[in-house]
């Protein structure tokens, strides 16, 4: 039976680290992580996590190494709901990044948790 997008996401989730909004907010406030928003530019323009760099999922594997060349740096990736970021986190880990986390629940979870957003 052919795999679906969610099958791929669930496989990726089994291999990656996820971080909840509270722990991510703490790490970001302490300046302990690079934050990569893998949503599309129009989503990013509407609202984002303060300090996040926008690198859409379609180019993440090419662009993240330029934005964050240190493969040991802590990186928190997020999308709208946590699916695209899980895929990116999995691919970055496969590319040798050793400290990548996907924001559980994505940007929606971030906002539901009452965290501040930039507009």
Would you kindly provide a brief summary of this structure?
45% of the residues lie in helices and 14% in strands. The protein is α/β, with parallel strands linked by helices and 119 residues long.
Tags for this entry?
single chain; 119 residues; alpha/beta; 5 strands; 45% helix
Distance between the termini: 43 Å
- Shape summary: globular
Tell me, rounded to a whole number, the average pLDDT: 97
Please estimate the helix content: 40-55%
Q: Indicate the multimeric state.
A: single chain
Low-confidence stretches: none
Major beta sheet summary: 5 strands, parallel
Q: What is the overall number of helices? A: 6
The percent range for strand residues is 5-15%
Instruction: Tell me the Rg in angstroms.
Output: 13 Å
| Protein structure class | alpha/beta
Which series of helices and strands comes N to C?
HEHEHEHEHEH
Structural write-up:
With 119 residues, the protein is an alpha/beta fold. 45% of the residues lie in helices and 14% in strands. Strands 1-5-4-2-3 form a five-stranded parallel beta sheet. α1 crosses α5. 35% of the residues are buried. The model has no long low-confidence stretch (mean pLDDT 97).
What is the strand and helix layout of this fold?
Layout: H1 5-15, E1 17-19, H2 21-29, E2 34-37, H3 41-46, E3 53-54, H4 60-67, E4 75-78, H5 83-94, E5 100-103, H6 106-112
Helix pairs in contact: 1-5
